[in-house]
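Changelog excerpt

This revision adds worked examples to the README so contributors can see how folded entries look when concatenated. The first example is reproduced verbatim below.
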Amino acid sequence: MSERKVLQKYYPPDFDPAAITRTRGPKPVGPKVQTVRLMAPFSMKCTSCGEYIYKGRKFNARKETTDEKYYSIAIFRFYIRCTRCSAEITFKTDPKNMDYECEKGAKRNFEPWRLGGGAKEESEEERLDRLEAEEAEKDAMGELEGKMVDAKREMQIADALDEIRTRNARNERVGKDGEIEVGAKDQRDLERETVEKEIEEAARRAFTTETGERVRRIGEEAEAEVTIGGKLEAKTTDAELMPPPSFKRGIKRKKDFSAALGIKKKVALV
């Protein structure tokens, strides 16, 4: 079993370090390739076996630096293999559209948000048509908003005018017919007083006998005026003859429950 950390190395007896020569070979020609760990940047379908590879799946890919450049930004190419048939799939970076472009081995799935973009270059005529359509749409929206604002303002003005007309009509009616309205109000007060007097007279007649005496209710304890020696004296009632209430605290005697419980008390002999 070898050591985990080698501290001493074995050198054979015929080892000659002078026999070792350093050779400087030419630098490798072509693109620089290195192995990296990456995730699939988009969902794709393998053209060889039809396997779907979803976005975010991890691969051990080969990264290649190409000679292409977008301005001064380098473009990289990645090589991965299908998880089912091991067919080679290639895609590269797209700095212009801030995306990735699938080259061979797979077909990128449909993505609705990429309909207006992508690697397809837009011509001058298409750009002008697109700008005109956007401006027309903006003008239509602005015109609709303006119409809504105008309609709202007209409604507010109409409401204010109606309120002013109503107030002016009310002021004119009060100014012309003010005295008439006051006289009608006095007439109504007089009629109300007359009706109240008639009601009081009918009640008085209902509670008065033919001789003119007032009818008393049963159980009513009223004071009767009696004339004695030319003076008026009030007849005393039973309530006045009763003694005044006393709030003096009395001594409460305890009740003897011994007989009820069957307890007999012993008679004292002494």
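The second example, added in the same revision:
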Amino acid sequence: WLVSLIFWYIVKKDYWSQYRIHTPEEFKQRNRVTVGEVLRSILLQQALQTAVGLCLGYLTAAGDFHGREDYDIAIWAGRVHRARDALPWILALLGVDAKTLAVSIQTYATSMPLTAPTAEKPLVLLSSIVYPHLGDGLTYGYTDWEIWVAKMIYWFLEPAARFGLAIFFSDSWQYFWHRAMHTNKWMFRNIHAHHHKIYVPYAFGAFYNTLTEAFLLDTIGTTLSLMLSGLTIRQTMFFSTISVMKGVDDHCGYRLPWDPLQWVLNRKQSNYSQLYTTFWDHVCDTVCRKSDQEIEMLYEKGRVLARQRAEVEEVVEEKM
């Protein structure tokens, strides 16, 4: 709502008009639903989604608790420890003798004109491979470097993988449902056409949908993507916030060259893809084939039509 209010203020003050896609005349003439109706619909939708979220939170006890970070890091440290124990066996399967490799690297390291601390690094690494239980600075039974690797996995690699899975599932869910609602006449007429009453988009109008569409695409889709990816509560908050901000930004009615959220998804190629990528549009060959000139001609046609209607209304009002 904060991002929506910022864009609404920009629209009302007519800032950055050179980047605006539609004119104020189009906003008045072409939208078939009032701002008040949009607000009421979205607030009802969000109230129901909040109720569903509270129910899910009650039924599925939260997996996060005090000390969970240390616990998960310890779990990863154990995995790293076991992987290190397996290194000599993996090298043996590849036909490499771990001790011979250690001696070779030790000979190479000591022959290099390096300072003592630098020369010791290969030795420490190889000693940990050949003699995996040796090491200084034990923490809860693990060496310092095992804890460090576990922290890198916990704070960076694992979240990146989980976010990637959540994005892929969310994009897939949104694409195929959105495509079905455009290709199936009954679904478009009874479910999705509601959203297209806002011809000239504005920020908070992004989530103007029927309750059926909101439940299918947003509530169920988001819930499944979060559950399948296994995001933590903190990661879920971050992912959901970015997703909502992306949806709001996509419908803001501006093409802002410095807006990082508009770099993520190429709207000129997007057809049924919605949030993050145009992957499925490319895979299923449904990308928009119109050139920039053709798209601009369509926008200009809409501007002219709205201007003509506005002029006709002015004439009628003067006569009255």
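Reviewer comment on example two: Residues 179 and 272 are 6 Å apart (CA to CA). The first helix runs from residue 2 to 13.
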